[in-house]
Amino acid sequence: YLEAAESLAKKAINQNPDIVIANQTLGMVKIAQDDIEGAVAPLRRACNIAENSVNLTLLAQALLRLDNKDKEAEGLVNKALQLKNDYGPARLQHAIILEGQGKNEDAYMELKNIALDQRGSDWHAVAGNILEHQGDGPSALQSWSQAIQLDPRNPEPYKKKAQHYQMRGDGALAIAEYHTGLDILPNDTEMRLELAELAL
Question: 113 phi and psi, to 5 degrees?
Fold first, then answer.
């Protein structure tokens, strides 16, 4: 599906580079393929054509995946929230920014501001990260497991669970999580390296 979406989006962009949805789709496909750097250019183009909360948030999401302290991303999220204050995905990225700044309480409050029907896999993954920073390992694990239940193809919670088990000194559980994560994203070098270190 991703390959088909990618080729359709590229065709459309070749015919007319100003089609917002084509740039948006290409960026989202790149994120799904874990090619975050490849996602930035089309998402930036989508933003330049139509500066709405969806495009601003998608670009911020890509930038934060590359660096969770990205200054530009913070500006984009603030702009998205000015346009639409209750836009859940923008609030989620804002929580990630606050977490990156070490403001875990604020990040958790921001997560709680997101409507229940907008709390998907990513919401639970971020909640798990914040809970871990607050020193609540069991709740963090529960949250990451919930994230996996909602979207088994989201590699982030597998990675976090593996790192958590690793720090706890539970190598076998960590290895299992890395293997599952790599089934989803076989070319994730970070996971490969951590798995190799564990195996040694």
Answer: -75, -10
Residue 33 burial by Cβ neighbours in a 10 Å radius (0-12, 13-18, 19+): middle
Q: Is 53 helix (H, G, I), strand (E, B) or coil?
A: helix
- Residue 14 pLDDT: 92
Angle ∠(64,65,70) on CA atoms, nearest 5? 25
The SS3 assignment for 87 reads: coil
Instruction: Write down the pLDDT at residue 140.
Output: 97
- The length of the chain is 200
SS3 1: coil
Burial class (CB in 10 A: 0-12, 13-18, 19+), 162: buried
How far apart CA 48 and CA 23 sit, in angstroms, is 11
Answer yes or no: pTM beyond 0.85: yes
Does residue 186 carry a pLDDT above 90? no
